[in-house]
Specification:
This protein is of the alpha/beta class. The protein has 10 helices and 6 strands; from the N terminus they run E-H-H-H-H-H-E-H-E-H-E-H-E-H-E-H. The chain is about 40% helix and about 10% strand.
Length: about 230
C-alpha cells in the first residue's frame, strides 16, 4: 500500500490553542447589549471562522450593531487579552512536541494583531514558520483560503499537511483544502455533526495529539482532492 507522509502541521488558534472563543462571544454579545439589540439565534456559530471583514459585516447587517463593530470588537478583545489570555490545556506542549518533528503554521480567523500578541504571550512565536490571518486572504473559514495559503507559504501540498481545528467552519475549511484533519472539539461550542464527520481523527484534548498520531494520518489516498 502506497502512503503519503505528513510534511507539515497547521494549527488553528482560537479554541485550539487559546480558550478565547468564549471571550469573542462575550465581547460581541456585549456590543449588541450596549446597542440595545437582541442576539440572533445561531449568530455565535455563524461567525466562528469568519474573517474580520466578514464577521464585522455580519455584526452590522444581521445583528445590527452600530458604528464600526470590527474595531469596537478588536479593541475590547485586545483589552481582555492584556488582562488574561486563557490557554487550553496541553497547548504549548503540543506545539513544542510537533514542532520538533514538522514545520508548523498557524491559520487563524483572528486579526493579525491578536495572532501576534497571542503567540508572543504563549512564548511559541519562534516555533511557527508562518502564520496566516484570514484578514490576509480573500475569504474566511469555511472557505479553504487560509489553510491553502499556510500550506503555500510552507511549500507543502495540502494533502501532506494536517490541520488541527475545533469549530464547524474550521473543520469545513481544512477539509475543503484537502488536508488531513484532527478535530479538537471545544466543550462550550461543539461542532455540528456534519462538520465533525469531515475529521480524520477526533480527540478530546491536545494531549492526545502525539507525533505518532499525526504521522499515522499518512494515507494510501495520495490523490485526495479538495472537498
Amino acid at each position: 500500500m502506497s502512503t503519503l507522509s505528513i510534511a507539515a502541521v497547521v494549527f488553528d488558534m482560537d479554541g485550539v490553542l487559546t480558550d478565547t472563543e468564549t471571550i469573542w462571544d462575550e465581547v460581541r454579545r456585549g456590543l449588541a447589549e450596549q446597542d440595545g439589540v437582541a442576539w440572533p439565534e445561531g449568530a455565535t456559530q455563524a461567525m466562528m471562522g469568519m474573517s474580520t471583514p466578514e464577521w464585522s459585516a455580519y455584526l452590522t447587517t444581521t445583528v445590527e450593531v452600530r458604528g464600526d463593530p470590527g474595531e469596537r470588537t478588536l479593541e475590547a478583545m485586545a483589552a481582555r487579552y492584556r488582562k488574561h489570555l486563557p490557554i487550553l490545556p496541553g497547548a504549548v506542549e503540543a506545539v513544542q512536541r510537533l514542532a520538533a518533528r514538522w514545520p508548523l503554521a498557524l491559520a487563524s480567523s483572528s486579526a493579525r494583531r491578536l495572532i501576534d500578541t497571542s503567540l508572543e504571550t504563549l512564548g511559541i512565536t519562534d516555533l511557527f514558520h508562518v502564520s496566516v490571518s484570514t484578514e490576509e486572504v480573500a475569504r474566511g473559514k469555511p472557505a479553504p483560503d487560509g489553510f491553502l495559503r499556510a500550506c503555500e507559504l510552507l511549500g507543502v501540498e495540502p494533502a501532506r499537511a494536517v490541520a488541527l481545528e475545533d469549530s464547524s467552519n474550521g473543520l469545513r475549511s481544512a477539509s475543503a483544502a484537502g488536508m488531513r484533519v484532527i478535530a479538537v472539539p471545544h466543550e462550550a461550542f461543539p461542532p455540528a455533526d456534519d462538520a465533525l464527520a469531515l475529521a480524520d481523527v477526533v480527540v478530546c484534548s491536545l494531549d492526545e495529539v502525539t507525533v505518532d498520531l499525526v504521522a499515522g494520518l499518512g494515507s494510501s489516498d495520495v490523490s485526495r482532492p479538495p472537498r
